[in-house]
């Protein structure tokens, strides 16, 4: 159904004139997409102020047969928040309040539109730590993080966003509100409904609020950038780090030499501190909430043992908070640095941690055989098996000619991943970018179950259609 003037009047009556955006300049930020692969077309953006207004807008859309694209910070990488010209964008940005904190229960109840970085700061105020952390944390919203089950740098120790959520409030496709804002560690009263919406990318309902877990505040952290000459040594280093520290490893990030070179070349304040070049680097961080734990002594003894065993060949230990920030700036800035080198074909994949070296060895050989001169740029959260297997175009190759190979590269990389019992989308979600890919790779029974859920919960098909799974 088209968005008519009469329908716009209905929306204005529900949320106010200022919360209904129709001018092109006002809509523009909601129509752009991070990678530039898609372009939104929605004629209107609605910005409700609370759950009741979200429910009213959803009901109006359901009655009119107009589909909705929920949108948080619009930082997704798979086209999950991209709209069509007959759709309404429902932006949750005005819903940005912390509804309550409980430092005894170690929980925080929040609106879905809260910026992730603001929630980290709010937890810090209460002497706690909210561990979800990723490159877009200054603009992404917790509702979007939940809807895509975002990962980030601390999954190894704290889990994905799914693991950090105790309860949800959700507006369903018919406008009803499910109040599941329970701050319980245990609740075995039937189906775990929250898990239908976490990772659902707004296709089954719109998350409007959440109860989040927080943890005791960190008293100390130790960070180092380590050089590794053999990719097979990386998983041995991770195992040693976990056992040596008593599982105090917060992050364990792999960076290839090419990715490191791009960061040094294009990011301000990033320089190569090593005398020699190495094929692989690991950014490792230990942390503890226990005061006077002498984490530094433990960290140094771990590094000495790893060096003596020949697992690492060199390393730089951060001596200050500023040096720690610089090391993380290098790692988190790699995607931005890549943009300066031309087009990139990107893969967000996961394999079992023990299989990471084999995956990288096989996948690197396969893609370079397919296109000589290709510049692979793998990096990522090897501590949980998630590798961002990005492929930068060869020097001098035409951009469009290179991007035309996206499907070929997908098949090469994804075939290896699936053969190794991995996932073709580790933390970025499916969106519309990977809808056909998951049909290609997922078991038919699994796809049928997903479609059954979609049809049962959204029979009119108005919730973010064309994303994650098509009804048929």
* Largest sheet features: 8 strands, antiparallel
DSSP E strands, number: 19
Overall body shape? globular
* SS class: alpha+beta
What would CATH call the architecture of the largest domain? 2-Layer Sandwich
The helix count comes to 17
Averaged pLDDT? 96
| CATH C-level class of the largest domain | Alpha Beta
Proportion of β residues?
A: 15-25%
Distance between the termini: 20 Å
User: In which range does the helix fraction lie?
Assistant: 25-40%
Low-pLDDT stretches are none
How many individual domains? 4
CATH topology of the largest domain: Uridine Diphospho-n-acetylenolpyruvylglucosamine Reductase, domain 3
Gyration radius over CA:
23 Å
Please tag this protein with its features.
single chain, 472 residues, Uridine Diphospho-n-acetylenolpyruvylglucosamine Reductase, domain 2, Uridine Diphospho-n-acetylenolpyruvylglucosamine Reductase, domain 3, Alpha-Beta Plaits, five-stranded antiparallel β-sheet, globular, catalytic activity, FAD, Vanillyl_alc_oxidase_C-sub2, FAD-bd_PCMH, FAD binding
Write the layout of secondary structure elements.
Layout: H1 5-15, E1 20-21, H2 24-31, E2 44-46, H3 51-64, E3 68-71, E4 88-91, E5 98-102, E6 107-111, H4 116-125, E7 128-129, H5 142-147, H6 155-158, E8 165-171, E9 177-180, H7 194-197, E10 206-213, E11 215-216, E12 220-228, H8 232-245, E13 249-256, H9 257-266, E14 280-288, H10 295-308, E15 314-317, H11 321-332, H12 334-338, E16 344-345, E17 348-350, H13 356-370, E18 375-381, E19 386-392, H14 399-403, H15 406-419, H16 435-441, H17 444-457
Parallel strand pairs: 2-4, 3-4
Antiparallel strand pairs: 1-2, 5-6, 6-10, 7-11, 8-9, 8-10, 12-14, 12-15, 13-14, 13-18, 16-19, 17-19, 18-19
Helix pairs in contact: 1-3, 8-10, 13-15
């Amino acid at each position: 159904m088209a968005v008519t003037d009469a329908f716009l009047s209905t929306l204005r009556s529900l949320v106010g004139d200022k919360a209904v955006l129709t001018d092109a300049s006002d809509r523009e930020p909601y129509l752009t997409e991070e990678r530039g692969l898609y372009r939104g077309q929605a004629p209107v953006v609605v910005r409700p102020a609370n759950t009741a207004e979200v429910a009213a807008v959803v009901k109006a859309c359901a009655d009119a047969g107009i589909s909705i694209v929920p949108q948080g910070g619009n930082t997704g990488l798979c086209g999950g928040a991209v709209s069509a010209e007959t759709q309404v964008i429902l932006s949750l940005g005005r819903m940005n309040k912390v509804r309550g904190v409980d430092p005894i229960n170690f929980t925080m109840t929040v609106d879905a539109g809260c910026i992730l970085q603001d929630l980290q700061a709010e937890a810090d105020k209460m002497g706690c730590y909210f561990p979800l952390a990723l490159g877009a944390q200054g603009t992404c919203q917790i509702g979007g993080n939940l809807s895509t089950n975002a990962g980030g740098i601390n999954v190894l120790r704290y889990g994905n966003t799914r693991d950090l959520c105790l309860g949800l409030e959700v507006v369903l496709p018919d406008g009803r509100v499910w109040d599941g804002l329970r701050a319980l560690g245990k609740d075995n009263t039937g189906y775990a409904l929250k898990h239908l919406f976490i990772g659902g990318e707004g296709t089954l309902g719109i998350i409007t609020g959440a109860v989040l877990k927080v943890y005791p505040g960190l008293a100390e952290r130790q960070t180092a950038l380590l050089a590794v000459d053999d990719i097979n040594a990386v998983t041995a280093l991770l195992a040693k780090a976990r056992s040596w520290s008593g599982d105090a490893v917060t992050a364990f990030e792999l960076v290839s030499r090419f990715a490191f070179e791009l960061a040094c070349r294009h990011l301000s304040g990033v320089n190569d501190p090593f005398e020699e070049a190495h094929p692989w680097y690991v950014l490792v961080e230990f942390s503890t909430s226990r005061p006077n734990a002498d984490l530094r002594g433990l960290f140094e003894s771990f590094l000495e043992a790893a060096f003596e065993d020949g697992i690492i060949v060199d390393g730089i230990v951060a001596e200050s908070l500023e040096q720690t920030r610089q090391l993380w700036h290098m790692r988190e800035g790699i995607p931005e640095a890549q943009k300066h080198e031309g087009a990139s074909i990107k893969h967000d994949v996961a394999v079992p941690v023990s299989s990471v070296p084999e995956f990288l060895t096989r996948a690197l050989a396969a893609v370079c055989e397919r296109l000589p001169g290709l510049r692979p740029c793998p990096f990522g959260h090897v501590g949980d098996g998630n590798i961002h297997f990005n492929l930068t175009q060869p020097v001098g190759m035409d951009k469009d000619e290179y991007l035309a190979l996206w499907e070929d590269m997908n098949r090469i990389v994804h075939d290896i991943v699936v053969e190794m019992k991995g996932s073709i989308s580790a933390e970025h979600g499916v969106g519309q970018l990977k809808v056909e890919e998951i049909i290609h790779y997922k078991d038919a029974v699994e796809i049928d179950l997903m479609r059954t859920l979609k049809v049962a919960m959204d029979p009119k098909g108005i919730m973010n259609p064309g994303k994650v799974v098509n009804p048929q």
